[in-house]
Amino acid sequence: MSRPIPCKNFLTRSASSRLGPRLRPLLPLNPPISAPKVQKERIRPYSSVELESRITSVPETLRLKLPAPTLMASELRSRIPQKATSLALKDLPLSIFDIFLDAIYMCSGPNADKAYEVMLESWQTAFADGGADRATKQRFMEYKDTVIHIMINRADYDAYKRILVPTLKVGRPVSGVELVMKTFKFQRDKTLNAVIISNRAIDFFNSPRTPTYEKHKMLAIWLRKTLLYSGDTTDLGDTLSKFLDFAQAIGPINFRTTDPHLHLYYKAFRLLAAPKKKNMYYTPLMKMKKIFQIHTTFNEFNEFLTCLMEANVSEDSKATTIAWRMKSDLSLQNNLDTRTSKDLTLLMQAYLNLREYPKILSVHLQFPNLHDDSQIEILLKMYAQTKDWKALQEHFEGMYGMGDLPRLVHYTIVMEALVSMGARQEIEQLMTQLHLRNLKPNVFMYGSLIRSALNENDSEAVTKYFEEFSKQVKSQKIPNVQVAKLQPLRLEAIAKTADRQTMISAVLATLDESLDPSSSLHKEEVILTALKYSASLYSLELFEKSYQAACKLDLFTDNVYFASITFLTKMGLYERAETMALEAHQNSDVPYQNSRIFSAQLKNLRVWAAETPDNIFKHRLYAEIGVIMRQVNAGQASRNDIEELMTECAKYELSTSEPAAAERYLVSIQRPKDLVERHYLPLFRYYDNSLNHDSSKKILELYGALVKKNTTISAQLYFYVIKALVKLEGNEATSDNAIGLLKPVMNMYGLTKKGAENKLITSMELTKQAASIVQILKHCLTSFGANDKTTSQFVNKALENLQSKLGKDINIEYRRELYHRLAEICFANGYPATAVGILDAAMFEYHEIWRLMPLTQKRPKLLLIRYSEAIELKVKLLRALRMPTSDYEAILEDLNKMHVPIPRPVMDLLFERVIGSSMSAEAFQIVMGAVENFLVQGSMADIRLSRLISNVYRRYICYMLERNSALDLNQRFKAFNHLYGVDAETVKSLLAPVSDQRQALIQELLKLPKSVTVPFETLVSHPSHLFVPFRASWQINSLNPLHATKLVQLLEHFCEDNKPLSYSLYEQYPETFEYLLLFRDEKYRLTAFQEEVYKLSGGYERGLREHRQEVIDLMDAHCR
What's this model's pTM, rounded to 2 decimal places? Predict the structure, then answer.
C-alpha cells in the first residue's frame, strides 16, 4: 500500500512521489508474557482533569513506544548533528531523510513546534556542505511544497527565505504553493501577535499577465489563511477591507452564485460566518455590513449574503439561517425585498439539516412568490424523513401535469422513502411509470426495489431484480461503475439464510471478483461491506482478505481505516490496531488531526488499558490517551466526523465515572444535527448500570432532550427509558407510565392489533431491533407481568407478532443475540423446554465461530461474555427441567473441544451438577479436561510463581551453607523450611552441583518477574522480602475449594493401585495436577507457616495479607 505525501487545503497529491509505509517498532508494545506480573494495586482510568496534570509528569521512558512517527521531537532532534561535519550520516541511527519525514508528519500533531524545528534542522543538515548525497537531496526536494505549505500555516516567511530559498535553483518552474509564499510573504510578528502580509500583493492582482482564475484562487487562499491567523473578530474589518480591494483589482466584484470563480471562496466564507463565541453569528454579519457599505453597494452585500448561505448550508446550517435573517432585516430597512428563490431554497435545506421540519413548511407557505422546482426535492425529503406517507403521496401526485415533473431525482427520493414505509407495490408501480415515460431507472431505484423485496423475505424477487439490473448494466443504460453500490444488498440477501461458513465464502468470492482487473467492484463499498461481515462473524480470515484487497486496490480511505481498527480492537488485537491507526494518520490529508482516526484510536487505547493486567503498561496507555484528549480539547482535530471523536471522549469520561464531563463533550459539538441516537447511548448505559432514583430521573431528562431535538429513537434506547420508568414507580404491580410507553413502542413496530398494518418499520430494521424489543418485553413481564394478567397477555401477543413478522430467516448478523434473548423471555414466561430449543440454535451459532477459529487466536472478550451468559442460561434451564448429568457433561465436552474459557461462576454451576461419587471414568476424563483448560486459561500464575520462589529459596540456602552450618540454618529458617519443603542438610544433594553458589542464586533471581524480584544484596540482608507469602493473588482462574477437594478424592479413587493411569493423567493434565498438589500439600504448609507467625508474634490477630510488611519485619528479625 502506498503512503501519499501529506497534503492540506489547496495542495494536491503527487502520484510520482509516493512512498511505501515505513513503520519501525522501537520497543515491544506488550509486556513479556514469559513471567506473570504482580498486580500491586488496581489502576482506575484517570479523569480528564487528572490526565491533564499527570500526562506532563509521566517520564519519557514510560511513554508508549510506537512506530517512528510518534517519536518525541526531542528524540528526533538528538539524532541530528549540531554541524554537518560533526557526525557522518552513515553513523546516524536513522537516515537524515527518515528523521525529516517523521518531523513532517508530526507537524500536525501535539508536538508540532518541536517537530517544525527538527524539520528545518534536518533540511539545513542535508543541504549543508558535506551533507547528504545527490539522491537524498532529490528526495528532500520532492517534499519542498509540503515544507513551504507548513511554513505558510505557521506564517514563517523568514524561515523560507533563510533556509529554503538558498537551496532552490534559479529559473526553475514555480509551484502554486511557492507562488503563494513569494506573493504574500506571510510572517508572524510575535510582539504584535499578528501576521504581516506583503504590501506588494496588490501588484500581483493588478498584473495583466496572470489569468483571472489564478488570481481568484490566490485571493481565496489569502483570505482563508488570513482568517485562520486572526483568531478573533478584531482583525475582521481590516481583513475584509483588503479582500474587497484585492477583488476590485482583479475586476468588477461579482458575488452572484452563478459566477464560475465563486466556489473557490466557499471555505473562506465558512470561516467568515463562523461565530467567534458560541451562537454569536449575527455580530460578525453586522461588521461585514458596515465594511461593505464603505467599499461596495447594497446589492453586492445582498449577493454576498447569498454566497454565505450557500457556503454554509451543509457545514453550518445555523449560519445559513442567520444570513437569511440579515437579508430579511435589510429588506425591512430598505423597503425592498431582495430575497430570491435561491435564498428560500437554501433556508429550507438548512432547516432540513437541522431537522426543524415545521419551519420548512412555514417559510415555504410564507413566500409563494419565491417557489421553484428545487424546493420540491426538499419537501419530498422532509416527508420521507418524517415518514409522512400521506403528505408524500399527495405532493408527488400533485406534480403530474407540471411540465416535465416529476423528474428522476423526485422518483428516486420517493422510492427510497417508500422502502422505509414497506410499500413495495407502490415502488413497482413507480418503476412501471418510469418505463412508460421512457425514463431510465438509476442504480438507486433498483436498490429500492431490492430492499423492498428483502423486507418481505422474497428471495426470488431479489434475484429477479438483480438480473434486471445486470441487463441494464450490460446494455450500458446504467454506468458500470455503479455496480458496487448494490453488492451490499446482494450479500444481505445471502445473509438471511446462510450459515457462517457460507457467508464467509460469499464475501470472499465478492472480494476475489473485485480484484479482477476487468471488474467494476473497485469501490470502497465492497471493502466496507467485507469488513462489516468480518466483525459480525468474528472472522480474522475474512479481515485479512479484505485488508489485502484494500491494499491492492489502494482503497484505504478514512472509513476503511476506521472499520479495520475497530475490528482489530473487537478481536483483542490492540497492538496491531494501534500500528494501523498510526499508518492511517500518516496517510490522512490532515496527519495526526483526523477525528475519525482519532476516535478509533482512542477506543482501542481505552479498551486496551482496561484489559491489560500490567499496571506500568496501563499507565503508559493512559498517558497516550491523555495526549489525544489534550489535542481534542485544544481544538486540534478535524471538523469532519468530530461527533464520533467527541462520543469516544465521552465514553472515556464515563469510564472514569464523570458523566457531567461526558455530556460536555457532546454539548460542545457545533453541528448537533449530526448527533443521532448512537452518540447518546453510552450515557444511557452508564446511568442504567447504576439504576437508582437519581439515575432514572437523569435517563428521562436525556430522553426528553432527544425528543425535543426530533432525534429518531429506536427500541435500543426505549429499553433504558422503560426500565427507568419502572424503577421510578417502585416496581409496582402496575406501572402506568411504563405500560403507557410500552404500547406505542410496540405499535411503532407493528406488534399490536392497532399497529399490525404499520409498514413504517422495515423488516431489516425490525430484525436489527428485535433483540432490544425482546429485552423490553422481558423486563415488563418480570417486573409486573405476573401480577397483571392484562400486561402478561399484551407481552405474549407482542412476542407472537414479532416471531410472525420476523419469519424463519434471520440475518446472520443478529441471530445469536436474538435467539439468546428469545430463550431468556421464554424461560421467564415459564416455558423452559421451548427456551432450550431456541438457546440451542444460539449455541450452534457460537460453536460455529469457535469451531472455525484457530486455537492460537485470542478469544474476543465481548463474544466470551455473551457465550458465558448463554452457558449460564443453559445450566439454569437444564436444572429447571431436571435433566440428567449427561447433559451437563455434554456442555463440558463442547468446551474442551473448542478451548473456550469461561468464568468461575459458570464453571461452579457445571461442577455442582457433574462431580459426584458415582462418576464414570469417561465423565472423570471430561471433568479433568475442563479443569485443565480452565486453569491454563487462567495463567496458573500463583503456582508458577510459587515454583520459581521455591527454586530461589533452595539456592539461597545452598549459598548460606557456605557461611553457616546446616543446624543453624534449620533453626533460624525453620518456618521457611517447612513452607518450601527444604532441609538444609540435604538440599545440596537434591540440586545440580555448581562451582559458584552466588552466581547460581543470581541466575534464579533473574527468572522471577520484575515486579517480584529483589536485588541480590537485599535478598541476603532481608530474605523475608521475597520469601514471605501472602501476596495479592493475580491468578485469573481458581477452583472452588470444595470442588478441588472432591477432585483430589476422585483422583485417589481412580488412580489407587494404578500407577500407569496416574502417569497417563499427569501427562494429559499437568496443570491440573500441579494445582491440586498445591491445593493439597502446599496449602497445609501455608497453614503451618501461619501458625508459626502467630507463635512468633505472640498471637497476631490482624489479616496477614493486608499487613504483609509487618510479617516481613517480624521474620527478618527472627532469621538474623
Answer: 0.76
